[in-house]
Amino acid sequence: MYKSVRGTKDIFCPEIFFWQDIEIKARKILSNYGYEEIRTPLIENIELFNRSLGSASEVVNKQMFLVKRAVSDTEEKEHIVLRPEGTAPVVRAYLENNLDKKKDFVKFFYIGAMFRAERPQKGRLRQFHHLGVEAIGSASSYLDVELIMLAEELLINFGVEGYKININSLGCSQDKKKFALLIKKALEGKIKDLCLDCQKRYKTNILRILDCKNKNCQQILRGLNLGKDYLCKDCQLHFEEVKEGLDSLNIGYEVSPFLVRGLDYYTRTVFEITHSDLGSQDAIGAGGRYDNLIEELGGPPKPAAGFALGLERVFLVVKHKDFSLNPLQVFVIGLGKESQKQMLKILRSLRQNNISADADYQEKSLKAALRRADALKVKFVIILGDLELKKGILQLKDMQKGTQKEVGLEELINNPKEFLC
Ligand code: HAM
Q1: HSE on the CB side for 84, CA within 13 Å?
Q2: Cβ(230)–Cβ(182) below 8 Å
Q3: CATH number belonging to domain 330-420
């Protein structure tokens, strides 16, 4: 038997109802916040991510899927990858389509699959889905507050409880350099005690040491006093405004000096939403500012910010999972060839009248077909027999009342609502 690729999953009933439910809710909330949908391709050129996420970031270094032709006798000229995240593609699309010249400020959202070649475990897949938003063209601290407010509103509406919001400020690019230097100094003499990954990060991506999950590294880090002195005046003020804004909305958060995020493009505010039910992969969403990314990708200076929720992880922490589609209203059973032909006419009329209906296509015995109707929890069953059809009638069974009556075939087709509502 063929198996799905490790770290990917099929989504069907009843979980699919969760996906449908959150998409409907998300679209409504996002449009209330002024976000427009954007759909970018699943494949992009590798350089986009090398440039934006940083060549030393784990996503670029270890987790990108390179797309190759299955059979090719020539060397691939293009280096195409499956997108590992949505921010860089949105910025690429924004610049490539000259949207920066048409609009001062844009708000985009996307819902779609992302791909990372990670070792699969609970909450960590190789194909997963982001609900992401990107707001481009504003440096306002209040936009950061609005993003966190939006993330919270989405989660509450999806039925997530017990999450925690952590925030931090990395400062502008100058501050980030100062911060890196501060960590470098603080760790001098302790490098040998760090895990091997962190010893590498010390040389290539020092900020990432701060969110290493290794217990020993964490202990060393807890002993460091990092403070917020690395932030310039403007960035300090910006961060104060973010905190005040959250306070004024009664949004609970914790300042986490060790929160740095794994992607290079972040500046100033960063945030992560975690849930203790998830174990080691505890982030259900994350985001922050990326004020330099648009310029780094060849555009004008345009501050921006956004976040993405990991929908598989959201699903894992949603408390009440009793999602269900509206059950079918009517089940039609045709006993005999002629009846089955008429069955299709009835079905068309019901559906055109917005009455959901299905039929017995397995040509089971009446008893078995009724059992199926019962399992489907339909309100009505229509039974057609070839002999009764000759008289132009059918049987209509009301499953809730347990009653049955004769109805004219043409009357039912012409006016189903009179009999079935
Ligand atoms: P990220 O933190 O890499 O950020 O991903 C966002 C969320 O996606 C994570 O918090 C997690 O819930 C989920 N996630 C990440 N990797 C996996 C995985 N392998 N399996 C399942 N879920 C996963 C970004 O990608 C940024 N683009 C977010 C952003 C938007 N920042 C600004 N704008």
Answers
A1: 27
A2: yes
A3: 3.40.50.800
pTM: 0.92
| pLDDT, position 226 | 78
Q: How remote is the CA of residue 7 from the centroid of ligand 1, in Å?
A: 15
Q: Which atom of ligand 1 is nearest to the CA of 308?
A: 28
Q: Atom of ligand 1 at shortest distance to CA of 125?
A: 20
Length of the chain: 421
Q: Where in the chain is the domain with CATH 3.30.930.10?
A: 15-172+232-317
pLDDT at 325 over 70: no
Is the C-alpha dihedral spanning 151, 152, 154, 159 positive or negative? positive
Using CA positions, which residue lies closest to atom 31 of ligand 1? 287
> Which atom of ligand 1 is nearest to 261's Cα?
2
Whose Cα sits closest to atom 18 in ligand 1? 124
Position of tokens 């009664």? 250
Residues of the chain with CATH 3.40.50.800: 330-420
The Å distance, Cα 129 to ligand 1 centre, comes to 9
Query: For residue 156, which of 279, 34, 256, 25 has the smallest C-alpha distance?
Result: 25
Helices 233-248 and 141-158: crossing angle in degrees, nearest 10, is 40
Homologous superfamily of 15-172+232-317: Bira Bifunctional Protein; Domain 2 (3.30.930.10)
pLDDT (tens digit, 9 = 90+) per residue, 109-122? 999 999 999 999 99
How far is ligand 1, taken at its centre, from the CA of residue 312, in Å? 11
